[in-house]
Amino acid sequence: MFRRFSTFSFKLFSPLQLAFAMTLTAVTAFGQAGPSKPAQTKAQARPGVKRSNITRPSVILITIDTLRADHVGCYGAQTVKTPTLDALAHQGVVFERAISQVPLTWPSHAVILTGTYPFQNGVQDFTGQPLAQQFRSVAQAFRQAGYATGAVVSAFVLDRSWGLARGFDFYDDAFSAETFAKKDIGLVDRRAGESVAHAIAWLKKTPRRPFFFWLHLYDPHSPYDPPEPYRTEYHSHLYDGEIAYADHELGNLMSWLKQNHLYDSSLIVALSDHGESLGEHGEDEHGFFLYNATVHVPLIVKPPAGSGIDAGRRREPVETTAVAPTLLQLAGVKDSSDSIHSISAQFQSRSLLGTSQETSQTAKDPAYSETFYPFSSFGWSPLHALESERLNPEHCRRATSHRCRASGKDAGTPGPQSLHPSKFSCWEPESRRAGEITHSRLLWLSCRSLS
Ligand SMILES: [Zn+2]
Q1: What domains are there in the chain, each with its CATH number?
Q2: N or C: the chain end with fewer CB closer than 10 Å?
Q3: What is the pTM of this model?
């Protein structure tokens, strides 16, 4: 069985990063209920934002770590209760075939917040470099448009030193020294209850509207240790217990938004960064392979009231690179940076949905995934995959007869544009409906490591 090693060890961190972590432990007020880092006052001084006399909606991005789609009620799960996500789905658009571009936390969140592929932004593994400065975050675009911007993350793997805090007035990534002392640094996290409390505290302290807020919950990530009563109720499948717990705590945030008349008017997008293999294909967790278990993620978009977008379900494969363009388009925000540095110049996908005033655009096809974790940590081949509605079973059968041959030279890092059947190594019919293969995934090995 392939079990992921602990995601981090001290040797992977630069002295600067370690020093910063130690600084965080020193400045954290242990056990406090509210956020530990104040918002910047400069952003608070900006005026409210209106577009053509229409007040822009606030925007809430929710990422629930390690949540595979088929363990969510609105995606067909029967063994776990997810009423909060199900309610969001009932009022929004459910993307049934959302595909993560990389099944690793930090690289996947870099994709979500920048709208770029891992092979473009360079964040292909957690052992790599921080996000380069030239890549603009959707938070920067919102802040430049006058939004208050805040984030609460629940794991040290999203520490600000990696570069995703850019654009946020407030970025809550402080964990207690006690937590650092007890755990491997890669497992430092906090429960959803604490993170949601921090989120609500920031929202209360930030009356200026509109706002862009990102909440990251880490509970479904291993080790699976949900609190009671979820530990007892889900004792035979604790992973689901973590999901049910996270969903319950997320429900507290939704209730607060409703009580403060912010729910209906806000754009809310919920998704996961990747799934969890749970023993499928010989993998316990995530990162090694690109099968359905780890790259098929839930993605739900609840548009703001008055958007003209109907609730429903979409079946075509979509990428998480489309999340950032969707957030901006549905909020009516155009990045006002010069054209060279505008975030739209780096986007690799169009918005998943359009407002009634704007042209609705369909997602592109196919959906790409990659993982360099087996290469960078074990010297095995990197993996790449495509999922498409257009690949038929015969095409896939032909592809299985070809394998990437050792070329003895570096073939580079292929993107979707460089696909060639000779690189396909296997295929997986990922979804069957009434005996019909509706989507197929091709996986191929890069020639890079097969010399
Ligand atoms: Zn993750």
Answers
A1: 10-367 (3.40.720.10), 390-447 (no CATH)
A2: N
A3: 0.79
